[in-house]
């Protein structure tokens, strides 16, 4: 393999490598490679389910540790303890040793138990506390009932013992207070006291009433403060109730009903002295419980605070360790030799680095058996690995959003770095808006580090594209100067090429028109400011911008088409040059290249000076097709002949495009077969040579050159046998080419038309900013006095905010999307295949970056 | 001063700039990036300037307005 330097121009050279690693240092090697992030491992155990793999046990253990760590995090959140986040930019974590991981596992195991038991006792205590609080409320409220009830004893009795009411009434009347208390039990009236949730009170009352047929007297009072339910941790409003009833059975029934309604029944003494003692006791117990509760809480918090310091680091460690074992599970394990065998893709130029890394790990472990890394030949399609840096990353992402370039084809992101922002700027051209955008982009780049931490998603997206924004803004400054637009106003940077011709009896309101100041002076840079605000401004700018769109589109597409030549040459497919690139190019240039030439030629002729009416180019193009050989209006001498020749040339390319490539391929194929070559997978090859090697070579499609017998044995374990041995099928090639031809020819027309969006959007942008100015600033500037000043301030705020929101953000996004489409469709369709698959190496840094779970732990 | 020849002069200038960009791009794996981006930038900017200049070289219509104030009519 030629050691060419990897450039962003095309994918780096990739090699399939095989690693032989001693079992003892497997973990360390994978760790080191993970830090390096240059190898993408292939799964060699595809036929083995996830549970049967060698390191599943370790992964399970780590899963458990991870669960425990997450449990701590949840506990910390509950207790409101802040997590100390890990900043990977500041300090990196060293590769953990096995003992460290074991220690961590043990430690989190014991910590989990501790936290769990603390939690449990906390919950029991909390429950006890709630009960005691309820009891206290019952005692307090029930006391009130009793005091009131004793005043009404006679009435109760009157209602219960109706028969002998008159007799007893007298007796009761003379009774003193202490005797009244005794009389309660004497009357055989019992009571049930308790607490019930307020929303159940109504149902409770109804049930009691129905089951006891009204034989009860119920009293209740609301507890003013909500009580916390320890099981759900939610505050519940509750009521205290005391039910008086007659007879033991009824009381038992009431108790049962209360239980079924999940009311808490508490023991309350009838005697007020006893009740006072009870209250005291309850208060004392409540105090005790609260003390213990506070202590438990403090211990728990102290424990969690200690964990919070290192939780993030642990989480990352465990995540890495899990990734290592998951990778190890992809390796095939030779039990007899205690060797791990791995296969994977890596950039060829980084092989020495990988080799030295392996050597380092070996030396550190002091192992005599070396780790071996072998490059193996394969006809599998390598992954596309396009190196990026801080600047190109955003552009590459734009391209990758469309597709992954085929291995080693021209990286479509290379032209995009300039063409995408430039076409954006053609649509966005306004110096004022561009300067605001430029300052935003420069600010984002200047405060790159602090802004990186912002997690707000929308901003993170803009931040990610900060270099794209920078280039877009720079080009917009340029196009703004060309369009001579700054917030829809013009700048008089140079002398105008026009002067007003003022009639003798001119009065305000009379129309004046311009005259060229000199035949030899033209406005040197951009659009002449005299055009600004004129009545026929749009007439001029539309013609100018439309033609510019066509010319820029033609240039963009021609440039893109040239890449297909570079691709064909790189892949050594001359037929793509002769059968696709050249006829395509001639077709495109004969029609649209000619149009562009005509546009430019028409500009260079002084039609007014010659006194000839200028021909319309659109009509010219239409007549060129509709009636070849005839002219609507003459542009230059010999135009008919040239047009006929070009037209014939263009149409002559269609059959070449259609047939040259398929027939050449068929001829090539037939020639190869005539010489006796066959495809590798074809059955006709099953000969005397080798019966069992057929599997290894045929199915895997790999010649095991450079690897010994055991290598072949290992390779046969591969599962992804999706190798394509393309049988040559003429009809398929033909159909493909017909589609390509039709698509190409039609696209030449539609894509050129599609570039007219450059004109449409720049027109829209300019008109919108002019409207905004005339609706906010213009009336404010013409108003006078203090009121006018205040109006100006308000109008400016509005003007500025709307400029930013509508003209910069909204218009910017729309121009960006249009430019994106021009890159994706109009440009990429000319050369890029997008048949690749991305290189995704095993790397800790990208794993941590992409992990959703670890996001909470990283600062 | 600024007449039809400006197009040619401009072309010469950007060809010179592109050549300079080709040879003075920083060496290293990103050289191709520098060359491609710089030359494309020069060409794009030149194209746009040249188109704008050409469009005004032999104007077919002249500006016309009727809302001019007295003070500005002779500017």
UniProtKB/TrEMBL annotation, chain A:
The transmembrane segments are 422-447, 467-487, 548-566, 578-600, 607-625, 645-665, 790-810
Q: Where in the cell is it found?
A: Membrane
Which segments does the entry list as coiled coil? 101-128, 279-306
> Its topology with respect to the membrane?
Multi-pass membrane protein
Decide whether keyword NADP is in the record: no
**Where on the tree of life does the source sit, at the highest rank?**
Eukaryota
For this protein, the record's InterPro entries field holds:
V-ATPase_116kDa_su, V-type_ATPase_116kDa_su_euka
Q: Name one GO molecular function term.
A: ATPase binding
- One GO cellular component term noted in the UniProt record for this chain: vacuolar proton-transporting V-type ATPase, V0 domain
Annotated Pfam families: V_ATPase_I
The UniProt keyword set, sorted, is: Coiled coil, Hydrogen ion transport, Ion transport, Membrane, Transmembrane, Transmembrane helix, Transport
Protein's UniProt keywords contain Ion transport: yes
Q: What biological processes does GO assign it? A: vacuolar acidification
Q: Which family does it belong to?
A: Belongs to the V-ATPase 116 kDa subunit family.
* Functional summary from the UniProt entry: Essential component of the vacuolar proton pump (V-ATPase), a multimeric enzyme that catalyzes the translocation of protons across the membranes. Required for assembly and activity of the V-ATPase.
> What protein name is recorded for this chain?
V-type proton ATPase subunit a
UniProtKB/TrEMBL annotation, chain B:
Q: Report any Pfam family annotated for this entry.
A: ATP_synt_H
* A biological process from GO: vacuolar acidification
Membrane-spanning parts: 7-25, 37-61
Molecular function terms, GO-annotated: proton-transporting ATPase activity, rotational mechanism
Superkingdom field: Eukaryota
Which membrane topology describes this protein?
Answer: Multi-pass membrane protein
Where does it localize?
Answer: Endomembrane system
Task: List, alphabetically, the GO terms of the cellular component aspect.
Answer: endomembrane system; vacuolar proton-transporting V-type ATPase, V0 domain
Ordered alphabetically, the record's keywords are:
Hydrogen ion transport, Ion transport, Membrane, Transmembrane, Transmembrane helix, Transport
Tell whether Nuclease is among the UniProt keywords: no
**Which InterPro entries does UniProt cross-reference here?**
ATPase_V0-cplx_e1/e2_su
What's this protein's family per the entry? Answer: Belongs to the V-ATPase e1/e2 subunit family.
Q: Can you name this protein?
A: ATPase, V0 complex, subunit E1/e2
Q: What is the lineage of its organism?
A: Eukaryota, Fungi, Dikarya, Ascomycota, Pezizomycotina
């Amino acid at each position: 393999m030629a050691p060419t330097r990897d450039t962003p121009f095309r994918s780096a050279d990739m090699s399939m490598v095989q690693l032989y690693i001693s079992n003892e240092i497997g973990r360390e090697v994978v760790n080191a490679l993970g830090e390096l992030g240059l190898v993408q491992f292939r799964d060699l155990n595809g036929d083995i389910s996830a549970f049967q793999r060698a390191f599943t046990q370790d992964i399970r253990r780590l899963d458990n540790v991870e669960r425990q760590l997450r449990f701590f995090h949840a506990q910390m959140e509950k207790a409101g303890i802040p997590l100390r986040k890990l900043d990977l930019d500041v300090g990196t974590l060293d590769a953990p040793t096995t003992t460290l991981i074991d220690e961590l596992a043990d430690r989190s195991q014991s910590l989990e138990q501790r936290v769990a038991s603390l939690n449990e006792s906390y919950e029991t205590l909390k429950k006890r506390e709630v009960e005691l609080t309820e009891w206290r409320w019952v005692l307090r409220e029930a006391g009130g009932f009793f005091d009131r009830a004793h005043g009404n004893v006679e009435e109760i009795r009157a209602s219960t013992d109706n028969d002998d009411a008159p007799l007893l009434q007298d007796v009761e009347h003379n009774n003193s207070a202490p005797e009244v208390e005794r009389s309660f039990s004497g009357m055989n009236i019992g009571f049930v006291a308790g607490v019930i949730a307020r929303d159940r009170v109504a149902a409770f009352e109804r049930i009691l009433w129905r089951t006891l047929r009204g034989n009860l007297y119920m009293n209740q009072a609301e507890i003013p403060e909500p009580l916390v339910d320890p099981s759900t941790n939610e505050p519940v409003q509750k009521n205290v109730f005391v039910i008086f009833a007659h007879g033991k059975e009824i009381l038992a029934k009431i108790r049962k009903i209360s239980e079924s309604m999940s009311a808490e029944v508490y023991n309350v003494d009838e005697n007020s002295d006893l009740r006072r003692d009870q209250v005291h006791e309850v208060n004392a117990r409540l105090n005790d419980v609260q003390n213990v509760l506070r202590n438990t809480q403090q211990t728990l918090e102290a424990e969690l605070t200690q964990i919070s310091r290192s939780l993030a680091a642990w989480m990352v460690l465990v995540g890495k360790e899990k990734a290592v074992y998951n990778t190890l599970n992809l390796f095939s394990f030779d039990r007899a030799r205690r060797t791990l065998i791995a296969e994977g893709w890596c950039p060829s130029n980084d092989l020495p680095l990988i080799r030295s890394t392996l050597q380092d790990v070996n030396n550190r472990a002091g192992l005599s058996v070396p780790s071996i890394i072998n490059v193996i030949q394969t006809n599998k399609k390598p992954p596309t690995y396009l190196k990026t840096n801080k600047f190109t990353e955003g552009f590459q992402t734009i391209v990758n959003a469309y597709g992954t370039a085929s291995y080693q084809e021209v990286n479509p992101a290379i032209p995009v770095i300039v063409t995408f922002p430039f076409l954006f700027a053609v649509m966005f051209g306004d110096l004022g808006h561009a300067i605001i955008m430029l300052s935003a982009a420069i600010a984002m780049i200047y405060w790159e580090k602090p802004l990186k931490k912002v997690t707000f998603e929308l901003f993170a997206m803009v931040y990610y594209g900060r270099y794209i924004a920078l280039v877009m803004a720079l080009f917009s400054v340029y196009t703004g100067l060309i369009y001579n637009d700054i917030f829809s106003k013009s700048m008089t940077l140079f002398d105008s090429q026009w002067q007003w011709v003022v009639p003798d009896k001119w009065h305000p309101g009379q129309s004046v028109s311009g005259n060229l100041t000199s035949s030899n002076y033209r406005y040197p840079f951009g659009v002449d400011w005299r055009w600004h605000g004129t009545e026929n401004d749009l007439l001029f700018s539309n013609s100018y911008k439309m033609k510019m769109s066509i010319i820029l589109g033609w240039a963009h597409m021609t440039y893109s088409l040239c890449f297909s030549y570079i691709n064909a040459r790189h892949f050594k497919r001359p037929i793509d040059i002769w059968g696709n690139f050249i006829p395509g190019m001639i077709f495109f240039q004969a029609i649209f290249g000619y149009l562009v030439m005509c546009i430019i030629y028409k500009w260079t002729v002084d039609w007014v000076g010659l006194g000839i009416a200028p021909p319309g180019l659109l009509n010219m193009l239409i007549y060129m097709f509709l009636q070849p050989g005839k002219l609507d209006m003459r542009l230059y001498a010999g135009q008919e002949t040239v047009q006929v020749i070009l037209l014939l040339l263009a149409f002559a390319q269609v059959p070449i495009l259609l047939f040259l490539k398929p027939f050449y391929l068929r001829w090539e194929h037939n020639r190869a077969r005539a010489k006796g070559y066959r495809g590798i997978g074809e059955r006709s090859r099953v000969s005397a040579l080798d019966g069992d090697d057929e599997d290894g070579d045929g199915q895997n499609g790999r010649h095991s050159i450079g690897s010994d017998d055991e290598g072949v044995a290992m390779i046969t374990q591969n599962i992804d046998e999706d190798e394509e041995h393309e049988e040559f099928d003429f009809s398929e090639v033909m159909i493909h080419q017909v589609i390509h031809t039709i698509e190409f020819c039609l696209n030449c027309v539609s894509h050129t038309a599609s570039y007219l969006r450059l004109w449409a959007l720049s027109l829209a942008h300019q008109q919108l900013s002019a409207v905004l100015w005339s609706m906010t600033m213009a009336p404010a500037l013409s108003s006078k006095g203090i009121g006018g000043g205040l109006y100006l301030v308000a109008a400016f705020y509005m003007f500025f905010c709307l400029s930013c929101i509508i003209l910069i953000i909204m218009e910017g996004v729309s121009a960006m999307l249009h430019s994106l489409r021009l890159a994706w469709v109009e440009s990429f369709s000319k050369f890029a295949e997008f048949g690749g698959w991305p290189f995704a190496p095993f790397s800790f840094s990208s794993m941590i970056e992409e992990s959703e779970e670890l996001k909470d732990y990283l600062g | 001063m600024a007449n039809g020849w400006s197009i040619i002069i401009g072309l010469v200038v950007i060809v010179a700039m592109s050549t300079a960009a080709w040879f003075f791009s920083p060496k290293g794996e990103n050289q191709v990036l520098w060359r491609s981006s710089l030359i494309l930038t020069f060409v794009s900017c030149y194209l746009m300037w040249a188109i704008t200049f050409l469009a005004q070289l032999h104007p077919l219509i002249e500006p016309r307005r009727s809302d001019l104030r007295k003070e500005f009519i002779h500017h």
